[in-house]
């Protein structure tokens, strides 16, 4: 009786046959699709070689690759149209375009990093590049003499001062735009958006004209940090505004219902909730400022000596170090410039990885450390 009731209608249906289950494939690539891609690649390559070498008076690797890619798309579209319907043809064309775009970006990044490694490895392989300045190094000195220590310290000090200036102003402006508002909110937002597209040399000219020429200040790391502040502040403001707007409105309403004022709600609820996103905004602003050359060129000056005081005397940074030495017709000087570019790329990579780690949580989402702390507190409360 139990066995009879346990049978499903499919089991008792007349004509039902038992057999292995058939797996339905929801993803992946079939052999026919791989063969279509391979055939399109081979056929387009052969036709491209015939056109470039035998028929058309064209030359150049870039044109060859571009023509090959266009012919591949045409061959692939024709081959897929012979096998599948128009919907699948469009889907496969979009897929191929997306994959090829991603591979192109990865290829460009690998090419740039490989080029810097190839040209700058001879300098970075010596420890003196990170421990010495160019104070006692001449144009024809060997690669084992001199380095970029003064430029690394200058970049870190200028970036630190610019971050100290731009972060409070940027976050305050974001809070005003997203939480306070008023009649000046639209002009402020328009100004911030205009400053985002501001050419970096204009920021350097502004600090040069106002701070150095008008107020009589000397070229220094402090003046360069002011120019970097002009470039970083709109980046921080726009990113922070977006993050603050993502904070759920129910948290604000709960804070107001408990009797908190607006500034207390912003300080104790909104900003702590948006902390991971704000950290990302800060790091992205730092990544923008650390690679600027033209503002630093006009405001900090150029020196081969080590200057650890950003408020007195000229101070060089990594972008300015690269710009100065890559133009010289000496192989060792060019190697030092490419090594400095490799160091700068490593700094930017560290900043973006930090932004990814700090901004990996959504607003209001607890981190693993916070969840562990809450669990420990709850366990301690139960023990008491």
UniProtKB/TrEMBL annotation:
* Stored Pfam families: BPD_transp_1
Compositionally biased intervals (Polar residues) = 1-10
**Which GO cellular component terms are attached?**
plasma membrane
Give the superkingdom in one word: Bacteria
Which SUPFAM superfamilies is this protein grouped with? Answer: MetI-like (SSF161098)
Q: What membrane topology does the annotation report for this chain?
A: Multi-pass membrane protein
What keywords tag this UniProt record? Cell membrane, Membrane, Phosphate transport, Transmembrane, Transmembrane helix, Transport
The ABC transmembrane type-1 domain extends over: 152-355
Q: Which residues cross the membrane?
A: 58-80, 92-110, 159-178, 190-216, 222-244, 265-287, 337-359
The UniProt function text for this chain reads: Part of the binding-protein-dependent transport system for phosphate; probably responsible for the translocation of the substrate across the membrane.
**Protein name as catalogued:** Phosphate transport system permease protein PstA
Q: Which source organism does the UniProt entry give? A: Kitasatospora gansuensis
Q: What is the lineage of its organism?
A: Bacteria, Bacillati, Actinomycetota, Actinomycetes, Kitasatosporales
């Amino acid at each position: 009786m139990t066995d009879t009731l346990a049978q499903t209608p499919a089991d008792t249906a007349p004509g039902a046959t038992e057999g292995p289950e058939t797996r339905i494939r929801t993803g992946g690539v079939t052999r026919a699709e791989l063969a279509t891609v391979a055939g399109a690649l081979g056929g387009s390559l052969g036709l491209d070689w015939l056109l470039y070498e035998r028929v058309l008076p064209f030359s150049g690797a870039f044109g060859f690759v571009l023509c090959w890619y266009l012919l591949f798309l045409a061959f692939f579209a024709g081959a897929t149209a012979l096998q599948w319907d128009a919907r699948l043809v469009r889907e496969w064309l979009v897929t191929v375009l997306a994959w090829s775009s991603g591979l192109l970006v990865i290829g460009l990044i690998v090419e740039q990093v490989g080029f810097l490694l190839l040209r700058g490895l001879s300098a970075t392989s010596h420890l003196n590049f990170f421990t010495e300045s160019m104070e006692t190094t001449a144009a024809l000195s060997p690669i084992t003499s001199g380095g970029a220590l003064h430029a690394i310290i200058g970049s870190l000090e200028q970036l630190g001062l610019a971050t100290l200036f731009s972060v409070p102003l940027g976050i305050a402006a974001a809070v005003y735009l997203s939480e306070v508002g008023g009649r000046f909110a639209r002009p402020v937002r328009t100004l911030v958006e205009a400053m985002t597209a501001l050419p970096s040399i204009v920021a350097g000219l502004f600090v040069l004209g106002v701070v150095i020429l008008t107020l009589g200040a000397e070229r220094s790391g402090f003046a360069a940090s002011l120019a970097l502040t002009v470039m970083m502040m709109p980046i921080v403001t726009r990113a922070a505004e977006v993050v603050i707007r993502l904070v759920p409105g129910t948290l604000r309403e709960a804070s107001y219902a408990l009797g908190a004022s607006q500034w207390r709600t912003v300080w104790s609820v909104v900003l702590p909730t948006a902390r991971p996103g704000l950290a990302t905004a800060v790091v992205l602003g730092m990544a923008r400022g650390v690679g600027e050359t033209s503002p630093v060129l006009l405001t900090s000056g150029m020196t081969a000596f080590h200057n650890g005081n950003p408020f007195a005397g000229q101070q060089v940074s990594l972008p300015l170090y690269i710009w100065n030495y890559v133009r010289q017709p000496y192989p060792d000087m060019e190697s030092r410039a490419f090594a400095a570019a490799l160091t700068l790329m490593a700094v930017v990579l560290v900043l973006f990885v930090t932004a990814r780690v700090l901004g990996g949580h959504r607003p209001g989402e607890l981190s693993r450390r916070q969840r562990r702390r809450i669990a420990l507190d709850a366990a301690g409360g139960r023990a008491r």
